[in-house]
Amino acid sequence: MRKALICPTKYVQGEDELLNLGYFVQTYGKSALLIAHPDDVKRVKAQLDETEKNFNITFVESGFGGQCSRQEVARLQELAKEKNCDCTIGLGGGKAIDTAKCVAEGDNLIIVPTIAATDAPTSHSAVLYTPDGAFDDYAYFKQSPSVILIDTQVVANAPTRFLVSGMGDALSTYFEARANVQSFTKVNAGLPCGFREGKCPEAKGTNAAFVLAKACYESLMEDGVKAKMASDMNVVTPALENIIETNIFLSGLGFESGGLAAAHAIHDGLTILEGTHGYFHGEKVAFGTLCQLALENAPMEEIIEVLDFCDAIGLPMCLEDIGVSTVSDEELLEVAEKACIPEESIYAMPFPITVESVAASIKTADEIGKKYKAGLL
């Protein structure tokens, strides 16, 4: 059996770690293309200026337009070439990080998340959009980022909703990896580089990836509530440090080398409902996790444990919590149809999937969540 695991070369997190960014740039040369939203640059400008001076390196401002499009990637690659940049930095949230991945194409890449809202920073994949924001394609590169550098104080200063959303994304990691183990499904770690180029070689998840996915869930249960309280006060505590690592590193390696399943596919389906558009990826994945548990007929004790966690930190537990106050059976079938398109991860579930069974699981999860919130479970 062919197995695969992919991970960054170096992962570093700590308070004031941004002051060491220049050191990592220096390992590649003297200059770095800095891809970041202007607001994110402004928030950490003092640290950037200090590390630039201390390590005698130069950040080349990119004028990042905010969208990870082929056109923006081409422009930034030309800028990097023109300015003789020795490496690429993606600083901020998902769009800047994905754009940096595409510009670097797997070489000399430093990722500096300023929020812990998703598990994307560690992965060797990116999502491309059209200039007006519509989905374009997925891209996969020959390796994960060279360095992940996280300043925990910067993350602590960000709005708590980002951290909670990251926990919602991480919440699915163990359950989706478990489904992949049971179904022997191929995982993203074995995918080729490029924009959907070539035939995808089969690669199953490793034992190590599943251990990381399980540790991800255990960390959420142990430290999630305490980390949220620390974030509310903008302070760094051991619990917050653990959850930052959980949201970004454990969940990142867990999803890419352990596999996705129904939770993320149902998230994708839910995006057709207009009410969900104001909610973060991880918030919708959290409800998708409850749907996956309903789909696989998980023990009620397990579902209640997940609901208790969602309730404690403020993650969605029913459709109303992601902006859908009313939904028809026909609309649920449309959601399920999108979740069940051939390329979706829902087929990693270890049993036959139908559109009807997926729609039923969403409806059931919604009812369970509503009953829980009403104190009837």
TrEMBL record:
Belongs to the iron-containing alcohol dehydrogenase family. GO terms for cellular component: cytosol. This is Glycerol dehydrogenase. Its EC number is 1.1.1.6. It holds the Pfam family Fe-ADH. The gene is gldA. Keywords: Metal-binding, NAD, Oxidoreductase, Zinc. Binds 1 zinc ion per subunit. The keyword NAD applies. Residues 8-152 form the Alcohol dehydrogenase iron-type/glycerol dehydrogenase GldA domain. It is an enzyme of class 1 (oxidoreductase). It catalyses: glycerol + NAD(+) = dihydroxyacetone + NADH + H(+). It comes from Peptostreptococcus russellii. Glycerol binds at D119, D169, H264, H281.
